[in-house]
Amino acid sequence: MVTTDLSNLFHFKSEHTAKNYLSYLKQAFLLIGVQKYSTKSKFRVAQEKVYPVDVALMNNRDNAFAAENLGWRLETIVLLRLLRKARQEGYDIYYLLERGGECDFLVCNDNRVLQCVQVSYDISAEKTRKRELKGLKLAAQMTGCKNLLLLTDHTYEDTTHEGLDIKIRPVHEWQ
After folding, report:
1. Beta-ladder partners of 105
2. Can you list the pairs that 38-46 forms with residues at least 24 positions away whose Cβ atoms lie under 8 Å?
3. CATH number for position 86
4. Secondary structure of 151-167 in HEC code, one letter for each residue
5. Are 158 and 152 in contact (CB under 8 A)?
6. Environment class of residue 10 by beta-carbon count within 10 Å: exposed (0-12), middle (13-18) or buried (19+)?
7. Do residues 34 and 79 touch, judged by C-beta distance below 8 A?
8. Considering the domain boundaries, does residue 18 fall inside one?
9. Is residue 40 part of a domain?
10. Are the C-beta atoms of 133 and 161 separated by less than 8 Å?
11. Which residues of the chain have a pLDDT value below 70?
Protein backbone atom coordinates (compact mmCIF):
# COMPACT_ATOMS: atom_id res chain seq x y z
CA MET A 1 0.00 0.00 0.00
CA VAL A 2 1.22 3.49 -0.85
CA THR A 3 0.65 4.91 2.62
CA THR A 4 2.74 2.19 4.25
CA ASP A 5 5.61 2.92 1.86
CA LEU A 6 5.32 6.66 2.52
CA SER A 7 5.17 6.14 6.28
CA ASN A 8 8.39 4.13 6.15
CA LEU A 9 10.16 6.45 3.71
CA PHE A 10 9.44 9.64 5.67
CA HIS A 11 9.44 8.01 9.12
CA PHE A 12 5.85 9.01 9.90
CA LYS A 13 4.54 7.54 13.13
CA SER A 14 1.34 6.35 11.50
CA GLU A 15 -0.20 5.56 8.14
CA HIS A 16 -2.92 8.06 9.00
CA THR A 17 -0.37 10.86 8.67
CA ALA A 18 0.69 9.57 5.25
CA LYS A 19 -2.96 9.43 4.15
CA ASN A 20 -3.43 13.02 5.27
CA TYR A 21 -0.40 14.18 3.27
CA LEU A 22 -1.63 12.35 0.17
CA SER A 23 -5.00 14.00 0.61
CA TYR A 24 -3.40 17.44 0.92
CA LEU A 25 -1.34 16.91 -2.23
CA LYS A 26 -4.44 15.82 -4.16
CA GLN A 27 -6.39 18.84 -2.89
CA ALA A 28 -3.52 21.08 -4.06
CA PHE A 29 -3.73 19.42 -7.51
CA LEU A 30 -0.21 18.00 -7.30
CA LEU A 31 -1.36 14.37 -7.31
CA ILE A 32 -4.20 12.53 -9.05
CA GLY A 33 -5.76 9.35 -7.76
CA VAL A 34 -7.08 6.55 -9.99
CA GLN A 35 -9.46 4.12 -8.36
CA LYS A 36 -9.33 0.35 -8.74
CA TYR A 37 -11.88 -1.15 -11.09
CA SER A 38 -14.48 -3.22 -9.30
CA THR A 39 -18.18 -3.77 -9.52
CA LYS A 40 -18.24 -3.25 -5.73
CA SER A 41 -17.95 0.40 -4.70
CA LYS A 42 -16.16 -0.35 -1.42
CA PHE A 43 -13.14 -1.66 -3.39
CA ARG A 44 -13.17 1.32 -5.78
CA VAL A 45 -13.08 3.80 -2.92
CA ALA A 46 -10.49 2.00 -0.78
CA GLN A 47 -7.83 1.17 -3.36
CA GLU A 48 -6.21 3.91 -5.37
CA LYS A 49 -3.06 4.47 -7.46
CA VAL A 50 -1.57 7.94 -7.22
CA TYR A 51 0.16 9.85 -10.03
CA PRO A 52 1.80 13.29 -10.18
CA VAL A 53 0.00 15.90 -12.29
CA ASP A 54 3.24 16.75 -14.07
CA VAL A 55 6.08 14.42 -15.04
CA ALA A 56 8.55 17.15 -14.05
CA LEU A 57 7.72 16.24 -10.44
CA MET A 58 9.52 12.94 -11.10
CA ASN A 59 12.85 14.57 -11.99
CA ASN A 60 14.41 14.28 -8.53
CA ARG A 61 14.08 10.50 -8.42
CA ASP A 62 17.23 8.41 -8.60
CA ASN A 63 17.87 7.54 -12.25
CA ALA A 64 14.96 9.73 -13.36
CA PHE A 65 15.63 9.01 -17.01
CA ALA A 66 16.35 5.28 -16.68
CA ALA A 67 14.17 3.00 -18.80
CA GLU A 68 11.94 1.95 -15.89
CA ASN A 69 11.27 5.56 -14.92
CA LEU A 70 10.58 6.49 -18.55
CA GLY A 71 7.79 3.91 -18.44
CA TRP A 72 6.29 5.60 -15.37
CA ARG A 73 6.55 8.96 -17.08
CA LEU A 74 4.83 7.65 -20.20
CA GLU A 75 2.08 6.08 -18.07
CA THR A 76 1.53 9.42 -16.33
CA ILE A 77 1.33 11.26 -19.66
CA VAL A 78 -1.23 8.76 -20.96
CA LEU A 79 -3.29 9.09 -17.77
CA LEU A 80 -3.38 12.88 -18.06
CA ARG A 81 -4.58 12.64 -21.67
CA LEU A 82 -7.18 10.01 -20.76
CA LEU A 83 -8.49 12.16 -17.92
CA ARG A 84 -8.86 15.21 -20.18
CA LYS A 85 -10.71 13.17 -22.78
CA ALA A 86 -12.80 11.36 -20.17
CA ARG A 87 -13.98 14.58 -18.56
CA GLN A 88 -15.12 15.91 -21.94
CA GLU A 89 -17.05 12.75 -22.77
CA GLY A 90 -18.30 11.87 -19.28
CA TYR A 91 -16.23 8.69 -18.87
CA ASP A 92 -14.43 7.30 -15.84
CA ILE A 93 -10.86 5.97 -15.67
CA TYR A 94 -9.91 3.04 -13.45
CA TYR A 95 -7.02 0.61 -13.15
CA LEU A 96 -7.35 -3.16 -12.84
CA LEU A 97 -5.25 -5.17 -10.41
CA GLU A 98 -5.87 -8.83 -9.74
CA ARG A 99 -3.70 -11.76 -8.77
CA GLY A 100 -3.28 -12.67 -12.44
CA GLY A 101 -1.95 -9.30 -13.51
CA GLU A 102 -2.62 -5.61 -13.98
CA CYS A 103 -4.09 -3.38 -16.65
CA ASP A 104 -3.04 0.25 -16.39
CA PHE A 105 -6.29 1.94 -17.41
CA LEU A 106 -9.90 1.03 -18.10
CA VAL A 107 -12.05 3.66 -19.79
CA CYS A 108 -15.63 3.20 -18.57
CA ASN A 109 -19.04 4.62 -19.30
CA ASP A 110 -21.24 3.77 -16.32
CA ASN A 111 -20.72 0.03 -15.77
CA ARG A 112 -19.47 -0.68 -19.30
CA VAL A 113 -15.75 -0.83 -20.10
CA LEU A 114 -15.14 0.89 -23.44
CA GLN A 115 -11.37 0.40 -23.71
CA CYS A 116 -8.50 -1.31 -21.90
CA VAL A 117 -5.17 0.51 -22.14
CA GLN A 118 -1.71 -0.72 -21.21
CA VAL A 119 1.35 1.53 -21.29
CA SER A 120 4.94 0.38 -21.66
CA TYR A 121 7.85 2.47 -22.87
CA ASP A 122 9.56 -0.46 -24.61
CA ILE A 123 8.17 -3.93 -25.32
CA SER A 124 11.19 -5.28 -27.22
CA ALA A 125 12.05 -7.62 -24.32
CA GLU A 126 9.90 -10.74 -24.55
CA LYS A 127 9.25 -10.74 -20.79
CA THR A 128 7.87 -7.18 -20.91
CA ARG A 129 5.76 -7.87 -23.99
CA LYS A 130 4.23 -10.97 -22.38
CA ARG A 131 3.45 -9.07 -19.15
CA GLU A 132 1.71 -6.23 -20.98
CA LEU A 133 -0.31 -8.55 -23.24
CA LYS A 134 -1.22 -10.67 -20.21
CA GLY A 135 -2.63 -7.57 -18.49
CA LEU A 136 -4.80 -6.77 -21.51
CA LYS A 137 -5.98 -10.38 -21.70
CA LEU A 138 -6.94 -10.32 -18.02
CA ALA A 139 -8.85 -7.07 -18.48
CA ALA A 140 -10.68 -8.45 -21.51
CA GLN A 141 -11.65 -11.61 -19.62
CA MET A 142 -12.86 -9.74 -16.55
CA THR A 143 -14.76 -6.98 -18.33
CA GLY A 144 -15.76 -8.41 -21.70
CA CYS A 145 -14.09 -5.47 -23.46
CA LYS A 146 -12.57 -6.22 -26.86
CA ASN A 147 -11.09 -2.75 -27.52
CA LEU A 148 -7.52 -3.42 -26.37
CA LEU A 149 -4.67 -0.95 -26.79
CA LEU A 150 -1.01 -1.13 -25.82
CA LEU A 151 0.78 2.23 -26.00
CA THR A 152 4.57 2.33 -26.35
CA ASP A 153 7.26 4.80 -27.27
CA HIS A 154 7.79 3.57 -30.82
CA THR A 155 6.12 0.23 -31.70
CA TYR A 156 3.31 0.12 -34.28
CA GLU A 157 1.68 -3.26 -34.72
CA ASP A 158 -1.63 -5.09 -34.86
CA THR A 159 -1.39 -8.46 -33.18
CA THR A 160 -3.55 -11.34 -32.03
CA HIS A 161 -2.75 -12.74 -28.59
CA GLU A 162 -4.63 -15.84 -27.46
CA GLY A 163 -7.58 -14.99 -29.70
CA LEU A 164 -7.70 -11.29 -28.79
CA ASP A 165 -7.01 -8.52 -31.31
CA ILE A 166 -4.67 -5.95 -29.79
CA LYS A 167 -3.52 -2.66 -31.26
CA ILE A 168 0.01 -1.61 -30.34
CA ARG A 169 0.65 2.04 -31.06
CA PRO A 170 3.31 4.65 -30.35
CA VAL A 171 1.97 7.22 -27.94
CA HIS A 172 2.67 10.09 -30.33
CA GLU A 173 0.20 8.59 -32.86
CA TRP A 174 -2.50 7.92 -30.28
CA GLN A 175 -5.45 10.28 -30.03
Report:
1. 117
2. 39/111, 44/94
3. 3.40.1350
4. EECCCCEEEEECCEEEE
5. no
6. exposed
7. yes
8. no
9. no
10. yes
11. 1-2, 40-46, 57-69
